[in-house]
Amino acid sequence: MKKNLNIIKINGLRGLLFAGMVVTCLAAGFIAFPGYVAMHLWNYITASFVIPQIGLFQGVLLWGIIVASYFIFRKNKVVVCIKTPQGLSEEELKEVFADMKKQSQEDPILKAMLKAREAELKIQKQDEQESQSSK
Length: 135
What we know:
mainly alpha
């Protein structure tokens, strides 16, 4: 079975609150705080000049400009590849579905998804058998 297969399940209001907290903390740590630091550095450096001070929003924009400039001018270029993930083998899928069945004895949505996937696999197997028998 593939080791990097992750299934995230958010249940109810508690799960939504937790997901919102995670997103908020990530935004604060990677966007707001560096923007706050950039704002204070700008205001400190330009205090002796006749350049206006900036606020938090402008600090976040300055941080974005710094990050974008870093990615543009660094020597190693960023390569973005978009491709379809390679499918799991049938044995790996069966193992994943067995684990999901154990975890979701009372979850009707997950049960319906599992039944649909099993039906899809049966249809694929029948199609393969028909194509092999017609050859």
